[in-house]
Amino acid sequence: MVKNNYLSISGRKYMGKRYLFYTFFIISICWNLKSSAQIDSTNLPLFIIDTKGLRIVDEPKIEANLKIIYNEYGYTWKSDDPNIYDGNIGIEIRGRYSAMLPQKPYGFETRDSSGNNLNIPLFHMPPENDWILLANFNDKTFMRNSLAFELFRQMGHYAPRTQFCELILNGQYQGIYVLTEKIKVDKNRIDIAKLTEEDNTGDDVTGGYVFKVDYFDEYNSWESRHPPFKSSTERVHYVYYYPKPDEITDQQMQYIQQFVDQMESALYKAGSQGLVNFMSDYMNLDSFVDYFLLNELARNVDGYKKSSFFYKDKNSNGGLLHAGPIWDFDWAWKNIDECIFGATDGSGWAFTVHQCDPWPVPPGWMVKLMEDIRFKKMVKDRYQELRQTILSETSIFKYIDSVSYVLDEAQVRHYNRWPILGQHVGAPEVDPQPATFEGEINKFKNWISTRLSWLDLQFSSVIVTALEDSTKKEIAENTTCTIYPNPAQTYLYLKTDKVVSNISLYSSKGKQINISYLSGLGALDISTLPDGLYIMKNLFTDGSQWTGSFIKR
User: What is the mean pLDDT of the chain?
Assistant: First the structure.
């Protein structure tokens, strides 16, 4: 599908020539890469899969045997007896874009001798039967997902647990993988009430549910009645995740659709002031704050337009909508040639991805929440709190250093199997590609430092001060001012019963911008401004002031 001179493949939009370059380069790798890597021993768990001559496909799962060997206190040898697992599995290729890459990601389920699901504990993970082997072709540090999951857990939320390992498939070494929990509803993962086909009335039908923004079809999703923005002709779709599309009852479908519809009605009808008070009846706002902060730290646009999960417990257990668990960070923590996210100075808000005409279409929830002064203050206060602990460079780099140390031996084998260091593969990064694993780790750290510096500015600049001052004055003086339309393209109109004496305008980076106020029109001419988020501070002749935000696009 060609749209606006962009080529859309697997739900991602690229400038055509550049994407074709990467596609053909990847194809050439698929044809020409030959493994020179061998493995006899490792300090990591070793997975050995035998498909008995069958080819692994993307549905259905095929029968295979899995052996897992791990000596926690020394080296694991390929010739050792399996001591973690030795049994049947069903396995398939998983993912969408990642499934196109040479190192394939896999989903597998542990099974008993009769082919039934077999719940088992693996390493430090509670018993389950659904597991994922994440590939690392698009992540040369191996830890973009695991770092994000670790941080979200430290924030106090559930995120999938992980374990680094190496894989031999049908006798051929395949490199480093990340064993990962599949997002599931159970007491050790998303701990909400389970629904059965009999739970169709009263409190029973109110939870629990998990749904997501992701690739969809007419059978696995529903369409929101609300466009993500007033001027938008696009429609948002929500994908049923739990209960599954083929298991959810009509009454349960109706309930979760009505709940989300009521929440969206309240969100989009509320003004930009006092929105937090309205939404606290529907949303666990603390979870939305942390979800926002983590995805913004990693500048993860996929956290808003795909792989974006939400869950709701039954009303007797609180009944609020939570953001998360987080998922899918292999395109994050890097500068990519996609829309406005190639900036190398750490700038750019991931939640403004709607400006890039993405598919799937993201809901406008976060954009609307970020119009509210009190929600912004919640974000700012939480950010400053976390920067002293788990979001400090010291804490983040300690995790990166510990993982890179553990992987240092295995990465040599991995990059013998997949000789891609120094080359552009996977996500279209704009930065030069280091020729060593150490260089990749240093690039990763430098990216995080640059991003944190930019975020520090956003949460400590004149913007935050203006917002806090405005909050206090609104409470004390009830100053009234309305700006519209929002988003705006050419003129931004002001509606107020006071006389404007001065207007100050700031970019999202906190830089003041000279702007002319056309008093005769009661409007600002913003036609020459670059697209983005802006903060406007109005000073009135009576000494009061008002601060608001708008998006130019």
Answer: 88
